[in-house]
């Protein structure tokens, strides 16, 4: 089946009789922000949004209630003149719902086509295979007699001239049959004399425009021989334009480069060309026809050239400064890493990268969870780089690094005069700077409560209000937030707003700590050593087996960041071109190397069971049902095993991550 380019498909569909509880499970399973809803006849009736489910929970609605009351209807026809620009239409493959197509591009394209047809300098009409006129852009088609019309219809020629008896006019008619099997035939007609007149008028108009816009015009063929020279340019050069036709451009203009542009096809814009009498500004562009260079066009300015030259100097200086600042801004606000740059082959890391890739395909908010040093910012870069917003800016904000009294003006911006010391003209905030891109809010758990309220408005209304302003500015941004704190516990302690947590926690991604993926340590060591030695200009011969073993046995509470710190220290300590040994590693790695105690088989099994339960619960963000599913056991069995762990022996589980 040939699908429309903009067809939005879905992982699954809902029935209007589906319960809120069942819908919530499907949203979590497929990680999507909205799902289509069908009626008993399997016809599309609207969409159910994930945020709507959050509202039902807050309102205390029974999870067994059907979802039909919360379905948001969408357009279902193929053309609705009064439809809003944001509407979508349902598409079916036979009788089966296939997905949604945005309506705005279809309406826009239809209007654009109608405008183009109405402005076309020729008559267009379409007939079916029987000759019945189905469409015309200019009233009735030419009044052919039956004999003339028959000639048009039966002719095998792609173009023919027809003399219309009734109007006593001659038309040039082009005919084209539809490539589809619909029997449609397209006719294009123009009066012969009108076509000639239009061509002459167009040539005269172009000549007038060029004479007005530029002091001189010249064209050459691909060999550099002059084919046209304007009157003004001829007077400036002191030659007769007509006599210069056919002569090589180097004989007509000193220091010209017209023949070079005609040969290379590379344009030269606003070039200062030296003459005996002074300077002129020349622009030379190739003339390309059917993909081949057929010559070159030159446009020159030679009047008031002194002012133009001074202006060019100023423009060049401004462009140089602008490129410098633009380069700095882009370097600071562009994602530098992709998912392929994230090192790790451990199953937990592979699953995390897959989840990040899935999150990047949509436009929902992403919440990155994990201990300090696990690489949350790296994942934020990768999600942006793999998304449809990759060409837009990637703006980074550390909520803990900005003083609370400055955080509001940094995020939202301010208008001139809003406070003492406010910059003249005001300043854009980070949200506006991320327009059409992604904003990464690191350490979101440190955001003050009063700022959480304003941030929630940005997520809900898609607009920001600058400090001191009474107007709101719409923004088109995607939010990726990160934290190493337990937001659910913060919500319980009234340190973090519940509604903001729901808005952010649409696509949660938990990044595993390094101690849970030790098989990746040596891969990380290899990559980090290469980067560190190149940066320091100090080569080493890798690590000894004893040093490798120490790295593998250490628990790495600081995760990848701590590993890189240890390796940088080791490179500094080791002699050039020698192997890193345990002597070059910190004492904490040596002290942490103790013999493992001998346990009974029963103790070993119990310990493994505890670690499995704790690891699954941590990965499932505290959701015991999901943790049981990950372990492949029933929910009842999971609860029984968890209950049997005595309070003193039960491993500490923090939802998603550990407290800072």
Overview of the molecule:
By secondary structure, the chain is α+β, with helices and mostly antiparallel strands. The protein has six domains: 14-107, CBS-domain (Roll), CATH 3.10.580; 120-196, Beta-Lactamase; 197-307, PAS domain (Beta-Lactamase, 2-Layer Sandwich); 339-510, P-loop containing nucleotide triphosphate hydrolases (Rossmann fold); 514-591, Orthogonal Bundle (Helicase, Ruva Protein, domain 3); 601-644, Arc Repressor Mutant, subunit A (Orthogonal Bundle), CATH 1.10.10. 40% of the residues lie in helices and 20% in strands. The chain has 24 helices and 24 strands. The strands form seven sheets. It has a five-stranded antiparallel sheet. It is extended. It comes from Sinobaca qinghaiensis. Keywords: ATP-binding, CBS domain, Nucleotide-binding, Transcription, Transcription regulation. InterPro entries: AAA+_ATPase, AAA_lid_NorR, CBS_dom, CBS_dom_sf, Homeodomain-like_sf, HTH_Fis, P-loop_NTPase, PAS. Residues 342-572 form the Sigma-54 factor interaction domain. GO terms for molecular function: ATP binding; sequence-specific DNA binding.
Fill in the keyword field for this structure:
alpha+beta; Beta-Lactamase; 6 domains; 5-stranded antiparallel sheet; 40% helix; extended; disordered N terminus; transcription; HTH_Fis
Order of strands across the biggest sheet?
7-6-10-9-8
The Rg value, from CA coordinates, equals 36 Å
Major β-sheet, in short?
A: 5 strands, antiparallel
Low-pLDDT segments, ≥5 res: 1-5, 75-85, 593-597, 650-660
Question: How does the overall form come out from the CA principal axes?
Answer: extended
Number of strands: 24
Tell me the helix content. Answer: 40-55%
What's the number of helices? 24
The CATH class of the largest domain is: Alpha Beta
CATH architecture annotation name of the largest domain: 3-Layer(aba) Sandwich
How is the CATH topology of the largest domain named? Rossmann fold
Percent of residues in β-strands: 15-25%
Category by helix and strand content = alpha+beta
Distance between the termini: 53 Å
How many domains, in number, for the residues?
6
State the CATH superfamily name of the largest domain.
P-loop containing nucleotide triphosphate hydrolases
Question: Average pLDDT across residues?
Answer: 78
Domain CBS: 1-64
Domain PAS: 202-247
InterPro entries: AAA+_ATPase (IPR003593), AAA_lid_NorR (IPR058031), CBS_dom (IPR000644), CBS_dom_sf (IPR046342), Homeodomain-like_sf (IPR009057), HTH_Fis (IPR002197), P-loop_NTPase (IPR027417), PAS (IPR000014)
Pfam families: AAA_lid_14, CBS, HTH_8, Sigma54_activat
């Amino acid at each position: 089946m040939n699908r429309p380019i903009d067809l939005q498909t879905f992982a699954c569909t809902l029935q209007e009789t589906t319960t809120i509880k069942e819908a919530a499970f499907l949203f979590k399973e497929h990680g999507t922000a909205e799902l289509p809803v069908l009626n008993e006849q399997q016809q599309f009736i609207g969409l159910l949004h994930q945020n709507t489910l959050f509202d039902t929970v807050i309102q205390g609605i029974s999870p067994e209630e059907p979802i039909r009351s919360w379905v948001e209807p969408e357009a279902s026809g193929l053309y609705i003149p009064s439809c809003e620009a944001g509407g979508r239409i349902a598409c079916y493959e036979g009788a089966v719902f296939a997905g949604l197509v945005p309506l705005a591009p279809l309406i826009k394209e239809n209007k654009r086509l109608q405008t183009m047809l109405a402005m076309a300098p020729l008559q267009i009409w379409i007939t079916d295979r029987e000759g019945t006129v189905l469409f015309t852009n200019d009233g009735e088609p030419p009044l052919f007699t039956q004999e003339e019309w028959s000639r048009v219809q039966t002719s095998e020629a792609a173009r023919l001239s027809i003399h219309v008896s009734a109007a006593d006019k001659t038309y040039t008619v082009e005919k084209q049959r539809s490539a589809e099997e619909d029997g449609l035939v397209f006719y294009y007609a123009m009066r012969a004399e009108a076509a000639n007149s239009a061509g002459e008028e167009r040539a005269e108009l172009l000549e007038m425009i060029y004479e007005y816009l530029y002091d001189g015009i010249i064209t050459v063929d691909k060999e550099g021989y002059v084919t046209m020279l304007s009157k003004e340019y001829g007077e400036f050069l002191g030659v007769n334009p007509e006599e210069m036709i056919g002569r090589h451009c180097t004989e007509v203009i000193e220091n010209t480069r017209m023949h070079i542009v005609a040969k290379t096809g590379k344009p030269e814009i606003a070039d200062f060309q030296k003459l005996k009498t002074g300077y002129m500004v020349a622009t030379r562009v190739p003339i390309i026809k059917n993909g081949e260079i057929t010559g070159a066009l030159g446009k020159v300015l030679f009047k008031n050239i002194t002012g133009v030259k001074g202006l060019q100097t100023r423009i060049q200086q401004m462009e140089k400064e602008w490129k410098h600042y633009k380069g700095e801004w882009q370097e600071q606000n562009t994602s530098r890493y992709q998912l392929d740059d994230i090192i790790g082959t451990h199953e937990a890391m592979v699953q995390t990268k897959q989840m990040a890739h899935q999150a990047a395909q949509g436009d929902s908010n992403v919440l990155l969870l994990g201990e300090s040093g696990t690489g949350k910012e790296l994942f934020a870069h990768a999600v942006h780089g793999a998304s449809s917003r990759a060409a837009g800016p990637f703006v980074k904000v550390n909520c803990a690094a900005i003083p609370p009294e400055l955080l509001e003006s940094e995020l939202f911006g301010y208008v001139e005069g809003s406070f003492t010391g406010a910059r003249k003209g005001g300043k854009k905030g980070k949200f506006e700077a991320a327009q059409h891109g992604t904003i990464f809010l690191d350490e979101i758990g440190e955001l003050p409560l009063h700022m959480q309220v304003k941030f929630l408005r940005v997520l809900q209304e898609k607009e920001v209000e600058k400090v001191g302003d009474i107007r709101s500015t719409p923004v088109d941004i995607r939010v990726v937030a990160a934290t190493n704190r337990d937001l659910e516990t913060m919500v319980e302690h009234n340190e973090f707003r519940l509604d903001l947590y729901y808005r952010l926690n649409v696509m949660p991604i938990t990044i595993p700590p390094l101690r849970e993926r030790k098989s990746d340590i040596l891969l990380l060591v290899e990559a980090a050593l290469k980067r560190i030695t190149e940066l320091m200009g100090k080569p080493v011969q890798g690590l000894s087996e004893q040093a490798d073993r120490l790295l593998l046995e250490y628990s790495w509470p600081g995760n990848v960041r701590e590993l890189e710190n240890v390796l940088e220290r080791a490179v500094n300590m080791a002699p050039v071109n020698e192997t890193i040994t345990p002597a070059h590693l910190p004492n904490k790695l040596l002290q942490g190397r103790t013999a493992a105690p001998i346990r009974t088989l029963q103790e070993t099994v119990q310990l493994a069971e505890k670690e499995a339960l704790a690891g699954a619960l941590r990965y499932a963000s505290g959701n015991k049902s999901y943790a049981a599913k990950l372990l492949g056991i029933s929910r009842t069995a999971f609860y029984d095993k968890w209950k049997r762990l005595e309070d003193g022996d039960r491993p500490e589980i923090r939802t998603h991550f550990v407290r800072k």
